[in-house]
Amino acid sequence: MRQMSDNQKGIIKKVSATGDMGRRIREMGLVPGAEIQIQGRAPLRDPVAVKIKDYTLTLRNDEASYIIVEVDSPGTEVS
Amino acid sequence: MKKIVIALSGNPNSGKTTVFNALTGAHQHIANYPGVTVEKKYGTVHHKGVEIEVVDLPGTYSLTAYSMEEIVARDFLLNERPDLVVDIVDASNLDRNLYLAVQFKEMGAPLIIALNMIDVAESRGIQVDSEKLSSLMGVPVVPMVARSNKGVNELLDTIVAYGEKGPKWIPADISYGMDIDRALDKVAEILEGIEGVADRYPVKWLALKCLEGDKRVLGLLESHPQELAKVKQICDELSRHVMSTLEEDIEGIIADHRYGYIAGVTKKAVRRKIEARLNFSDQIDKVLTNRLLGPLIMIVILYLVYAVTFWASEVPVQWFESFFNGLKYLVTLVVPPGELRSLLVSGIIDGVGGVMGFIPLIMVMFFIIAILEDSGYMARIAYMMDRVLRWFGLHGNSVIALIVSGGISGGCAVPGVMATRTLRDPKERIATLLVVPFMNCGAKLPVLAMLIGAFFATNRARMLFLLTLLSWLFALLAAKLIRSTVLRGPKTPFVMELPPYRVPTLKGLIIHSWERTWHYIKKAGTIILGISVLIWAMMTYPGLSSEQEEMFAAKRQSASVAFLSSPGIARWIKGPAELKRLNDLYIKYATQKQQQTTIGRKIVSSDPLHVLAKTAYEWKTTTFVKKDVDPELLAVARQYLSFREQMATIEITRQQTALKSTVAGWIGSSLEKITAPLGFDFRLNIALLGGFAAKEVILSTLGTAYSLGVAEEDKGGALAERLKQSPMWNPLQAFSLIIFTMLYVPCLATIISIRKETSWRWAGFSIGFNLTVAYMVTLLVRQVGLALGIGI
To answer: Which of A7, A15, A23, A35 to mutate to test the interface with B (most CBs of B within 10 A)?
Structure first.
């Protein structure tokens, strides 16, 4: 997810984070199968705002690295 | 009468607080950022002959032992076992909101789903079939719009109907995949045999938590080491197995299955008419969190908070001031001079009035902050500031604690300290709560406002803005210092919701700002009144000894004798009796002039003493000489004026000696050795000592100290005026006091909150740390100022 550009869409394939971070990411709805779209980034290019279903979440780039997303062009997976 | 206890729960921003208010009519804080309702709140409602006790649980996304709110909510459910759990679910975010509902089912709680904000969902093209949702989830579902009171009665009906059946706690059957289900059964079997655990908690739920590695649940088993070892073995085996086959940890798999279950439900119960498009909130965010515009707009908005606050409260503040001045005048009319009058005027009215006078200011400030919170903008500030705060070892959410404590001026460190509960990492949390007392809280605001008004009057808004930036700077640097010394450690996740922008309701704003203002008034009415009186007593007793009093009386006597026997005086003033009458006439004339009661009505009197008093006063107050004044009369008048000055000097010396020989004077004087390099005299020390109890007291004590220390005839001017006239006060002195006030010890209430959230050790550390920082910084300001000659 970290490498995604603004407004890019994709589907979460895998969340590789464990422990507190993994729990937090999942309970906020960032789970495999969820459709996401990058909403934008904060003025200092971090954190990133993500649209998922009908709400918006923010997470830091470091955290976004743990989320593997399949972006629109089929077959391409980025973190 | 039958009684049902229900627990109200739900995600933050699901409208839980609104539902609570609608059900119970209780007035409560509504905000858009996660975790405002950390404390449990109660309310009672009667419906169809049944008494329903509503317990408002903290808003959570989950029921792990991940944050304080989750622990509070979970412990309540497990230990109190309410009859029903009402889960407020935001219909426009159904999937994530149901994640919590599924966990209630796992726990076995009898559940009602209140499907809130169906209007918002519909406007976004989401249609939820509540009957289908109900049959799929196996619980009653009540659609509602709590904001406009729709569905509240239906919810109450459902609560009564369901509650009267006396529902049981039965953990639901949800599959987490074959491997986990099998392990779950094994763990449950082990737990079943443990007395004191199996009969108190739902076993199946406990087993699930064991697999998730929940530390609190595993802690329950500590007194049963054999069983614990067996459980741990099962967990480890399972963990290795799923890691090798699925490359995920157990917790992740369980979460994925919960979401899988939810997806199965929503697929059937939710219909989307249109593809989700950029909604209104997103469009606003495109501008407000824009890379370039966002920070600029943020600074403008924060600046506007001050500008509007001062602009809107200027006139009402003057009303309050004149009200208390009038009150003082009334007291002087009714109560004869003496200790009682001194207590009423210097102790109570000056003390409490000085604090109450700022009510309009604080009310307006709270109102504007409520707009920021309720509209959802506050979360955007956290989002934009995270990158900066992270550098100082804090968390984006720390910004909320900092702002609540006074980051936009006029908060309170007590809720600020409590707001740190949303921070999960203990090190980030402690660092945040240690630095929030540096912010300019509502209690420091009057002190700062008074000093700014007196010494930096030309650009008040700009000065206060500068002070706010300074407080942020100090807080952040202090955080960096703490995080790189006593509290070193890694950062924690920052996954936060940006709630949709909402137009705040006027009712919500008024409740919100009034509650905080009322809190302030209550504080002024109780703690501050008590402290004002206590400090007045400390500043009055034991006072001068009779020998000292006699010495001053003798000084006054000899001055009078010397004056009466000077050449040319005897012709006008014959003896002490006439001198006393002249003094009275002079004061009477002066007060009349000051209050302008004699405009257009010239006093014509042939009494020579009258004429003399009038001439003396006119000479003193007007700069030009009138031609028609008798030169001899003028000479006498001038001599009389210099005599008055002499008497005033004696009086000031007497009062200052008196103040020094009181309890407060002793403490303040002995502290002078330490505070002299800061330029603080014993009076300031007394005031700052009082400020330890509550910061507002600084202002009231200064009020008392300065009205006690100034001769009678100049009394009545506002404290700011009195300080301006005092020779030891200049902008540098004022600025030193401002900086010291901003940084030194947190008030008593804050210390107690810090202790509640951490330990006495950290509370003590907080006092020592803040005092040291305040002393060092003020010393630097003072000495640099003196060396460069700025502001003296």
So the answer is: A23
Query: Which residues in chain A are contacts of B388 at CB distance < 8 A?
Result: 44
Number of H helices, E strands in chain A: 2, 6
Gap from A25 CA to chain B (nearest CA, Å)? 7
pLDDT-based confidence at B602, cuts 50/70/90?
low
Question: A9-78 — its CATH code?
Answer: 2.30.30.90
Q: Which residues of chain A does B126 touch, with a Cβ-Cβ cutoff of 8 Å?
A: 54
B127: pLDDT strictly greater than 50: yes
Q: Which residues of B touch A7 (CB under 8 A)?
A: none
Which range among B126-130, B192-196, B709-713, B747-751 shows the weakest confidence by mean pLDDT? B709-713
Structure tokens belonging to residue A7: 């407004």
**Domain with B153 in it: what CATH number?**
3.40.50.300
- pLDDT confidence of B32, banded at 50, 70, 90? very low
Structural domain count of chain B? 4
d(CA B739, CA B378): 27
Partner A contacted by B12 (CB < 8 A): no
Q: Name the helix (H) or strand (E) containing B296.
A: helix B293-334
Token duo for residue B130:
């509540």
Is B388 an interface residue toward A (CB < 8 Å)?
A: yes
Distance of residue A23 Cα from the nearest chain B Cα, in angstroms? 7
- Give Dmax (Cα) for chain B: 118
Domain that holds residue B667: 280-542+662-704+717-792
Q: What ipTM score was computed for the predicted complex, to two decimals? A: 0.91
Q: What is the mean pLDDT of residues B151-172?
A: 90
- What is the three-state SS of B61-130? CCCCCCCHHHHHHHHHHHHHCCCEEEEEEEHHHHHHHHHHHHHHHHHCCCEEEEEECHHHHHHCCEEECH
- Residue B769 in domain: yes
Torsion angle of C-alpha atoms B705, B710, B711, B717, degrees rounded to 10: -100
Residue contact A39–B384, C-beta within 8 A: no
Asked if residue B361 lies in contact with residue B386, where contact means CB atoms within 8 angstroms, the answer is no
Do both B635 and B682 map to the same domain? no
Per-residue pLDDT, averaged over B399-411, amounts to 77
A30 touching chain B per CB within 8 A: yes
Contacting residues for B59 by C-beta, under 8 A, at least 6 apart: B9, B10, B11, B12, B13, B14, B16, B34, B35, B36, B37, B69
For the record, the structure tokens of B115 come out as 């499907």
CA distance B191 to B185: 10
Are the beta carbons of B746 and B766 closer than 8 angstroms?
Answer: yes
| Minimum-distance CB partner of B495 among A25, A33, A40 | A25
Q: What angle do CA B559, B563, B566 make, to 5 degrees?
A: 140
Distance CA B243, CA A18 (A): 11
Rounded Cα distance between B169 and B281, Å, is 40
Residue in chain B closest to A26 (alpha carbons) equals B255
What pLDDT shows up at residue B274? Answer: 65
Smallest Cβ–Cβ distance between B383 and the set A16, A18, A47 belongs to A47
Q: Are residues B436 and B521 in the same domain?
A: yes
Chain B: closest CA distance from residue A57 (Å): 4
More confident residue, B575 or B67: B575
Closest among A69, A29, A15 to B496, alpha carbons compared: A29
Contacts with A24 from chain B: Cβ below 8 Å: 66, 493, 495
Residue B369: partners with Cβ closer than 8 Å, 6 or more residues away: B305, B403, B408, B410, B411, B513
Instruction: Enumerate the residues of chain B whose CB falls inside 8 A of the CB of residue A58.
Output: 383, 386, 396, 494-498
Query: What is the model's pLDDT at position B715?
Result: 42
* Domain boundary pick from B245, B272, B299: B272
Whether residue A46 and residue B387 make contact (CB cut-off 8 A), yes or no, is yes
Give this prediction's pTM. Answer: 0.71
Instruction: Identify the CA nearest to B261 among candidates B137, B149, B384.
Output: B137
